[in-house]
Write a structure and sequence with these properties.
It comes from Crocosphaera watsonii WH 8501. InterPro entries: DUF4277, IS1634_transpos. This is Similar to Transposase. With 235 residues, this protein is of the alpha+beta class. It is 34% helix and 12% strand. Helix 2 crosses helix 3.
Length: 235
């Protein structure tokens, strides 16, 4: 009499390629170096960020508390590391990591990753492109704006954005929105700089400050639309 060995089938799909690219760039190491590692934790902040990147390619419409379900049928140890279990990726852990990332500075961490990508894949930075877009959201978003206007000099400083009505690039002026500024390389369309802004933000009011901040890290010629050519933005 023969006994059949129990076989468990787990999926990798295209996520194995994504995980491999994340490892090649060294994103987990960058995050852990910036935020630190607590010897008591079962999963590091860098690995949580890796799981969020993988998860973002197919499960973004579900609530945060269902995050771990995405990995139930996946070969999670192949994707995230040995002895990693799906229940380690609970909403409390993810929330704490997100708070730590915000406190450190999302723009700073993003630039660290970008610089590593540029170095590893030898990205040509002679030309890059700046543009803005908007994303509409459902809901009221009643958080009141501070009485004192934020100083223009602090436009890059990270703070909670205000979801408000503004010029809608996706043709939904009836809904509140947020704005995204993105600079990409001409060589491969690699994201080099990203910034999220208030829904009623004007491109002319911030584009100059965005370029100044970008030039602190990366040199080259930045192309954009006519908003870059305003009198206050000529630098």
């Amino acid at each position: 009499m023969s006994y059949l060995e129990e076989i468990q089938v787990k999926n990798l799909d295209h996520l194995g390629i994504v995980a491999g690219l994340i490892d090649e760039i060294g994103i987990v190491k960058i995050i852990n170096n910036k935020l630190g590692i607590d010897v008591r934790e079962k999963i590091s902040a860098g690995t949580v960020v890796k799981s969020i990147l993988i998860n973002g390619l197919g499960f973004v419409l579900r609530p945060l508390y269902l995050f771990s379900q995405f990995f139930q049928d996946k070969a999670i140890e192949k994707l995230l590391g040995e002895r990693i279990k799906p229940d380690y990726l609970n909403d409390d852990k993810i929330g704490r990591v997100m708070d730590e990332l915000y406190k450190y500075g999302l723009n700073d961490i993003f630039i660290e990753v970008v610089l590593e990508v540029i170095k590893k894949f030898e990205i040509d930075l002679k030309y890059s492109h700046l543009d803005s877009t908007s994303f509409h959201l459902d809901g009221e978003y009643k958080r009141e704006e501070d009485k004192e206007k934020q100083e223009e000099e602090k436009i890059i400083k990270e703070r909670p954005i205000f979801i408000k009505k503004g010029y809608s690039r996706d043709h939904r002026p009836d809904l509140k929105q947020c704005v995204l500024d993105l600079i990409t390389s001409q060589d491969g369309d690699i994201p080099l700089f990203v910034r999220v802004g208030d829904g009623n933000e004007s491109d002319k009011a911030v584009v100059g400050k965005v370029l100044v901040e970008f030039k602190k890290q990366i040199k080259g010629i930045v192309q954009g639309d006519r908003q870059m050519g305003g009198r206050t933005n000529l630098i």
